[in-house]
Structure formats: structure tokens, C-alpha cells
Amino acid sequence: MTAVEVIATGPLSTVQDLGRPGNAGIGVGVSGAADRGALRSANRIVGNPEDAACVEVTLGGFAARASAPLTIAVTGAPCPVTVDGRAAAPHSVVRVPAGAEFRLGTPGRGLRSYVAVRGGIAVAPVLGSRSTDVLAGLGPEILRPHTVLPVGPPPEEFPVVDSVPVRPLPTDTVSLRVVPGPRDDWFTTDALETLLGERYTVTSECDRVGMRLDGPELPRSGVGELPSEGMMPGALQVPPTGTPTLFLADHPVTGGYPVIAVVLGSDVDKAAQARPGMRLRFTPSRR
Amino acid sequence: MAATGSTGQMGETGAAPRVLPCGDAGLLVELSGLDEVLALHGALEDRPPAGVVDLVPAARTLLVRFDPLRTGPGEVERAVREAEPVPVQRKSGELVEVPVVYDGPDLADVAEHTGLSEPEVIAEHTATEWTVAFGGFAPGFGYLTGGSGRLDVPRRAESRTRVPTGAVGLAGTFSGVYPRSSPGGWQLIGHTDLAMWDVDRDPPALLRPGVRVRFVDVRGGGS
């Protein structure tokens, strides 16, 4: 059986696909790739179905050995890719001979890279998905050296492109479009203006669940408790401290602090590539 | 916008639900209470509108998540408003006994907030049968309703970054058990060793909507 043996993982590497929607009733969130567009793109390059499982690599440092000839692609945060020491291009079809080792260096910008293998990572699905949900502790274990990842049979489709063009990721400020609400009426009238007018810095408390932001406080207009309600990726939830948390893929299914605004789905991908220290700028979405 | 908080059912006999935006891929439907939430949830689960990918029921709201490439907020809102609510029967579900050691770090705060003594807090918590209303927060976490009403406490002002597995907590009039270690803002009054979630068990969640729960003080010993 074709397989990939993990040699090194960097700070965090996990298996991800597009998640497990439809299980909220038993408290199971969607999870899946933090940058869904990058995962889809990696799969398209190698001819996989868009939702095939890939390896999500946080800040590079992933290395693995191929048991048989493989076709791979690396997307997301652009990092140097080598195959047995020889440089290969990101966002393109990369051939890995049997027994060869491929490595991802540290990306110059962005946070999360995606390694698609033609055939997909074929670990056992849990509730319909191969994604590791780090908050829920569901799905495959976080990858470690010596983990052997089975690779599925190659799809019928062949790679049709050698590489895909990508827009460079920002290095300083990321612009994210938001829709105000659902709980903007829990805040003072100035709060939304503050959110849209100021910059918020990504703190080091930043993982697949979400990112705590630092910046001007968003004061509430009154006191009171919100009954817990459903949460989404991109939700800007504001605890009583007044500074927002931006939820990502492994956010809790429900939460009890009001959400002042929600980042558009396509822009959540951009948020997931923002590093600690970078600044976020929220702009109102035109709809 | 329609008034909320009025009693009665949605539909022709009562107030229309308030529908709030959630980015470009969700709508938060605000209803008058848990029964109305579960009735709408039942309706949308029976006949899922095109493009709807997940339904998240909670105490007073139903979050409807959709794929913005397949449908839009206008179409989803129309489907929500036209849905025929399916009234819920509060079934006499399976009864689960949860053994609890009442040694939580917030027990004293809860006592102070409710004006009860610590033993009285424990007595209130163990006196009534609770029912799982809905899931959420984490796999296997059930929001339990049916307390006496005297245990009505706010969440902690700052949530803990790490609440241990099995911690038994209170928030508002709900009780719940943390199925695994996670961040959390509930007031912790005790802990249990009973596994709330086991992915190798079928079903993996011990506390599913409709299951009845009785908490048992296992270190009470007449103190």
C-alpha cells in the first residue's frame, strides 16, 4: 500500500479535509482546513476531489518519506519545498520518487501550508471526516514523527495544470470583510465604528480554534447574559474583557458571548494565514 | 423588525421570529423559547432547504448555516419563515445517573451568588431531574435544563483557558459536564469520572437530546 511516513512535523501538522458538517446536535463542529481555499487548490493541482484529506502544516517544518512514487502539491503559506534536497516549486505538481524524502521549509509569509498527495490521505474517517478537530479531540491524532499515513488509490482524473497562480499573502495588515451582527445591538454605537475604524493585532494566543486579538475595547451597551448560541468560523466574539476573539475552523459549536460581526467565509481563509503580531483591518461588506 | 420575547408560537398564531445575519453563510433565528427552537429545528431537519449545511439549536436561537454558493440569505430566510414547526414531545428518555464529587473551584462563588450555603447548592443540584435540551460547545456536551431555578448564576467574567475533563458546571439556569479538557467560562461546582464522550462507543455521546440526568453526590456522607 502506498503510504507517507512522517519524519518531522514542525510546530503543528494535522490531517484535514473539508470537515464534518451536520453534527451540531451532538456538539460536533465542522472543523476541516483552516484555509479551505488552499486545501481545495492543493487537491485540484494533483487531480484529487476538492475535499480529499491533506496535511495542514503550521509554519513549515514538515518532512516525510514516500513509500512509492507520489504526486504532491504544496499550497497555502508559500514555503521552500525540497525533494531529496532538490528544490521544488510550491503551488505546482511535484513528483516524489519511491523512498525519497520531501521537506517543507519555513514560509516567508503566511502560517499554514497544505500538502496534497494524489489519492488523498486515507486515514480512517470519524463521523464522516478525516479532519483533526483540536478543540473537540476528534479525528486522527496530531501528527508525530513515525506516523504512517496511508494514501488512497489515485483518482481517475489526471492533473490538468502544472501550477496555479496565487496572490501573495500580506505581511503586515490583512483586510477582512465583515457583516455586522448578529449581536451588534449588544454594544455601544461607537463599538462597531471602533471595530471598523481601528486595527487589531493578532496575539500569540492563536490556534485552529481562533485568535485572540489585541486592540481598542468594544464596550457593551448594557449588562446581561446572552444564552449560548450557535457560532461560525469568522465570528468576532467579544468576552467581557472587551477585546474580540476571531473564531477559526475548530471554534466551539456554541458560545455565550455576543458576536459583534462575522467575517465573510472566503475571508476567513485569509485570517487563518495571519501570524501573531500582524494586524487585522475589518471593512464592512457590501451586500 | 418583528418584536421578540413575546410568548406563543411562531407561524400564523404568534410573533414572527427575528432573523439576524451571520456573515455571508449563516442566519441566526431568534425564537421565544427552547420549545420553539426545537420545533423549527425539527421542521428544517425533516425538510432541509437547498444549500443548508448545518443547524445549530441553542436555548433561544437556531443558527442555520448554508453554502453561499448554492443559496442566499433571502432564500434561506424565506424557507425558515415558511417552515411548519414540528412540536416537540418531551420524551421520557433514558435516565443516566452521574456521580459527582462536589469540589469545584467556583462552589463558594455559586453559594455566594445564590444566597445558599455550599451544602444547599449541592442539595439543589442533586434534587431535580435534568434533561438534555441540546448539544453544543464540545462533542458530548449536553445543555441540561430542569433545575430548580435557584441555581441561576452568570458565567465567569473571564473564561478559564483549561477546564478539566469531567468538570460539572453551571451557567444561567443550565448545568453541564465538560466531556474533555477545554477552555470554558462556566462556574465549576464539582467533577465526575463518568465518560461523557467516547468515539468508540455507539452512540459516542452519553448525553443526547432527550436523555434525563440525575446528579448523585458521591462524597456527601451526611456532611
From TrEMBL, chain B:
Keywords: ATP-binding, Hydrolase, Nucleotide-binding. InterPro entries: CT_C_D, Cyclophilin-like_dom_sf, PxpB. The keyword Methyltransferase does not apply. Residues 17-207 form the Carboxyltransferase domain. One of its GO terms (molecular function) is ATP binding. The keyword ATP-binding applies. This is KipI family sensor histidine kinase inhibitor. It comes from Prauserella rugosa. The lineage of its organism: Bacteria, Bacillati, Actinomycetota, Actinomycetes, Pseudonocardiales.
